[in-house]
Amino acid sequence: MRTETLQRGTRFSVILLLCAAALLSAFGQAASASALTVRVLDVGQGDSIFVVFPDGGTMLVDAGTAEAGPRVVETLRSLDAEKIDILVATHPHSDHIGGMLAVLDAFPVGKVWDSGYVHGTRTQQLFLQAVLDRKIRFGRPKAGFSEEFQGVLIEVLAPVKLIYGTDADVNNNSIVLRLSFGEVSFLLAADMETEQRRTVRRFPETTVLKVAHHGSHNGTDARFLAMLRPKAAIISCGAENPYGHPHREAVALLEEAGVDLFTTIGGDVVVETDGIEFTVRKVLESEKSGQEKVRFYIGNRSSRVFHTSACDGLPSERNRVYFKSAEEAVKAGYRPCGRCVQ
Ligand SMILES: [Zn+2]
Ligand SMILES: [Zn+2]
Fold first, then answer.
1. Ligand 1 centroid – CA 47 distance (Å)
2. What are phi and psi of 37, to 5 degrees?
3. CATH level 3 topology of 2-18+32-288
C-alpha cells in the first residue's frame, strides 16, 4: 500500500522535475546544481558507494572493510559530506560492513537499511549494536519497496525474501538497489549471486551497472545483461585479491555486451548525471591526494609500456594493469614510457 502511494507520488514529482529542468534549460542555466553523483570508492577488495542527490542529500551503500573505513571517511569529508541520510548495509560480509563503525563515528546518520540476514559474526554484532546505541532509524526493506528522495527514485529489487541453502546465503540475501533520475538509472547489485538473481522476475533496463560480487563469475550472466542493457559497468575489487576477481568469464560477458568497463583498482569511479546525459570518470589516487608524488604505475597490456598516472598517454581502462612500483612493472616484463617515467 505504502509503496503504491510512494510510486504514484514519485511519478508526479519526476514529471514536475522534468518540467523544472526544461524551464531551467530554456533560460540557459546550468543543470550542474541538480546532478546525481554515484561514486564507487576504491576500498581495495570490498564495496562502498557514495551517492550525492540533486539537493545535496547523501546515501552510502556499504563501507568497505574495517581497514578501509578511515579511507571511506576521509573521502566523504573531502567531498564536504556532513551527514549520511541513508546508510545501506547490503549484506553482513566484512568487506561491506567492516568500515561501518568508522563511518558511524564520523557522521550523523538519518536511517539504516539492512538486509535482515543474520550472519552472527562479531563484525555484524558490533555494527547492529552501534546503530542501536545511536538510536538510528532502522529498516529491512524488501523487493517492492521504493522511496523518492530529492527527485531520484530508489527501488529495492532484492531481497524478494530471505533465502537459505544456497552456495553463499550471505551474498544471496543482498539488498539490490535501483536508482533512477530522469532517463538515467543505476543498478547497485551488491554481492548478489545466481540463486538470488533468479528470485527477481525482471530487471529493468539500466544505464550503469555496479557489477555484482566484485566481478565474480556467479554475479553476471548473459540473460541478466540482456535485460539490463547497461552502457557502463563498474567492478569494485582490489588489485591482486585472493579470489581472482574480476573473473575472466564475467569480464568477457560485459565486453561482449559492449559496455564501457571500469574497475576501482587504483582509484574511485565517479558517475555524474543530470538525468539526461551521464559521464563516467576515474579519479586516480594520486589526483585525490593532490600530491605530486607518483603512487603507482599504469601499464598498457597491448604495448607492454608502463606510465605514471600523470602521463597524457594513458591506455584505455580495459587495457590497464596497475603496478605499485616501477620495479614491479619491469619484473612483469613492461618497459618504461620515455616521456613520463624518469
Ligand atoms: Zn563482497
Ligand atoms: Zn559478500
1. 6
2. -120, 125
3. Metallo-beta-lactamase; Chain A (3.60.15)
Q: Does domain 294-336 have CATH number 3.40.10.10?
A: yes
Distance between Cα 269 and ligand 2 center (Å): 20
Give the Å distance between the CA of 311 and the centre of ligand 1.
32
- Are residues 284 and 266 in contact, defined by beta-carbon separation less than 8 angstroms? yes
At residue 11, the 3 state secondary structure works out as: helix
> How much distance in Å is there from the Cα of 55 to the middle of ligand 2?
31
List the 84-89 sheet strands across, edge first.
Answer: 137-139, 109-114, 84-89, 58-61, 49-52, 36-40, 267-273, 278-284
Distance between CA 34 and CA 27 in Å, rounded? 15
Q: Enumerate the domain spans of the chain.
A: 2-18+32-288, 294-336
pLDDT score recorded for residue 289: 56
**pTM for the predicted model, two decimal places:** 0.78
Q: Are the CB atoms for 342 and 292 separated by under 8 Å?
A: no
Q: Give the ligand whose atoms come closest to the C-alpha of residue 245.
A: 1
* Dist CA 229 CA 32 (whole Å): 26
Q: From ligand 2's centre to the CA of 230, what distance in Å? A: 23
Question: Taking Cα atoms as reference points, which of 305, 313, 309 lies closest to residue 294?
Answer: 309
Q: List beta partners, residue 45.
A: none
**239-259 pLDDT, tens digit each:** 989 999 999 999 999 999 999
Contact 275, 243 (CB under 8 A): no
Least-confidence region, from 20-24, 152-156, 303-307, 328-332 = 20-24
Spatial distance between the Cα atoms of 254 and 299, rounded to a whole number of angstroms: 22
For residues 328 and 76, the model is more confident at 76
DSSP assignment of 48-89 equals -EEEE-TTS-EEEE----TTTHHHHHHHHHHTT---EEEEEE
**Interval between CA 168 and ligand 2 midpoint (Å):** 8
- Phi and psi angles of residue 73, each rounded to the nearest 5 degrees, phi first: -60, -45
Place of cell 510512494: 6
- Other beta carbons less than 10 A from residue 66's beta carbon: 18
On the question of a common fold for 2-18+32-288 and 294-336, the answer reads no
